Amino acid sequence: MEIHIDLTGTRGHRDAIYRQLRAAILAGRIRPGEALPPTRELAQRLAVSRTTVSAAYDRLTAEGFLAGRVGAGTFVTASPVERPSPVLDAPGVQPLPEWDAVPPPPAPFAPAPEFDFRPGVPDLSLFPFDTWRRLITQRLRAGQADLMTYGDPQGHAGLRAEIARHVGVSRDVRASAAQVVVTAGAQQTTDLVARVLLRPGDLAAVEDPGYPPPRLVLGARGIRVAPVPVDAAGIVVDAIPAGTRLVYVTPSHQYPLGLSMSLDRRLELLDWAERTDAVLVEDDYDSEFRYTGRPLEPLHSLDSRGRVVYVGSFSKVLSPALRLGFLVAPPSLVPALVKARYLTDWHAPNVEQAALAAFMAEGGFARHVRRMRKVYRARHELLTRALAAFDFLTPLPSSAGLHLSAVAAADCGPLVRAARRRGVRLYSLGDFGVGERRHGLVFGYGAVAAERIEPGLARLRALADGGAA
Ligand SMILES: Cc1ncc(COP(=O)(O)O)c(C=O)c1O
C-alpha cells in the first residue's frame, strides 16, 4: 500500500513516521488487517535508515496498533478509536434550550443482568420467531412490488382492519378501520396528537407518578406539562389545572402503580373533558394481559362525544423492536393525524405491517396472546406470593400487564442501586414521580423467567436485611 509520509522539515524522522502512521490508523485511512510496507522498502522511499523505520514500527507494535506475522509482514491490528473531526472543538450550532431538559435516551439494555425485573418488556425468548420468519419471507417471496414503494401514512389497510377487529373483540373499542392510524409505537401517538391539537405554551397534564416519555414529548414541543397526582381511583380530576387541553392517562393499568382507574373516576374524567373541551389520550399499552376480574370499559367505549384517542402498542404483546402501535381517533381528528404522520416519517414499514396483518388474520396473534397470558399469569402469581414475605413492602393491587408495584415507608433508591450492583435490576417508584416522589419498588415480570423470580427476590431481601433498604 502506498502510504503518504512527509518528512520535509522534520528532524526526528522516527517520531514523524510514528506520528503520521498512528494518525492514519486512528483516522481509518489505514484499516485493520492492511499490511504496511516492509521496513526496507519504506526506508528506501523516505531516504532514511531501516533502523529508523523499524523503531517507529516497534513503537506502534508495542502500543497495539501493529502486529508482525513471521514471513508475512506487518499488519494494522487496531480499529480506529477516534476520528478527529476538524470541527470537534468548535462551539457549533446549539439546539433549543428545551432539549436540555430532555434526558438522554436509555442505554441499550444488553447485557441482561442475572435477575431482570425491568418493567415494560415482554419475554423476547418467546417471540414467535419461526412464524414471523415465515410471514416476512412469504411477503418478500411473493414479489409484491407494492410493498416496496411508499405506503399509506394511515397504515396498511389490512392491518388497520385487523386492529379494528382486535380492539373491538378484546376491548370493546368500537371503531372502523378508517379511525385507526398505525403508529411507530405508543410513544409516537402523544407527539402526533400534540402536533394537531396543541401550540407551544398550551397546557397538558400527565399522571404523577407516570410514564415519562409522553411528558418529555410534550415538553420538547414547548407545551407546558402539569403533573397531576394519582390516588387509588386514578388521576385526581379535581387537581387538573384550569386551561388544560390534553390529558394523558393509563386507566387499565396505571403506569407505574399498576392500579385500574375506577368507573366513577373514568366517568368524572370524561365529564371534565366534555366541560372543558379537552382531549384524553388513553394509553392501553398492556391490557391484553389480564389475569383476574373483568376489565373495566375503556374510556373510549364510555365516550359518546369524541373526546378520546385510544392508544395501543405491539411492543408488549410481540416486541418493542417492531416499533408498531396504533391509535383509534375520533373521525374529526383522523385526517390531521394522518397528515402529521406523513410529515413526521411518512409511514410504518410496509412488509412488517403486512406480515402482522396476516398473523392477526390467520389467528396466530390471538394464540400468541393466550400463550403469553398464561406465562405472565404464572409469574404474576409467583411474584405476588413472594412479595408477601417482604415486611417493608405493601404490594398494590394489580391484575394486568407486565409489572406490579409495592409501596414502602422509606426511599428505595439506595436498595435499587445496591441491587443493581448485585445483578438484580429493578426500579424505584421514585424514578417515575415528578412532584411528590413515592417510596416503593416496581417489579417487571416480562423479562424474568419464572424460576428466577424467587432467587432474585431472595437476593433483594438479603440486601434489604443487610441494611441497603
Ligand atoms: C405506559 C406505557 N405506554 C406505552 C408503552 C409502549 O410504548 P411503545 O409502543 O412506544 O413501545 C410503554 C412501554 O414501556 C409503557 O410503559
TrEMBL record:
UniProt-listed CDD domains: AAT_like (cd00609), WHTH_GntR (cd07377)
UniProt-listed InterPro entries: Aminotransferase_I/II_large, HTH_trans_reg/aminotransferase, PyrdxlP-dep_Trfase, PyrdxlP-dep_Trfase_major, Tscrpt_reg_HTH_GntR, WH-like_DNA-bd_sf, WH_DNA-bd_sf
Superkingdom of the source species: Bacteria
Molecular function, one GO term: pyridoxal phosphate binding
Alphabetized PROSITE patterns for the sequence: HTH_GNTR (PS50949)
Pfam families listed in its UniProt record: Aminotran_1_2, GntR
Keywords: Aminotransferase, DNA-binding, Pyridoxal phosphate, Transcription, Transcription regulation, Transferase
Keyword Transferase: yes
Matching SMART domains: HTH_GNTR (SM00345)
Limits of the HTH gntR-type domain: 11-79
Homology family: In the C-terminal section; belongs to the class-I pyridoxal-phosphate-dependent aminotransferase family.
Protein name, entry field: GntR family transcriptional regulator fused with aminotransferase
Species: Amycolatopsis vancoresmycina DSM 44592
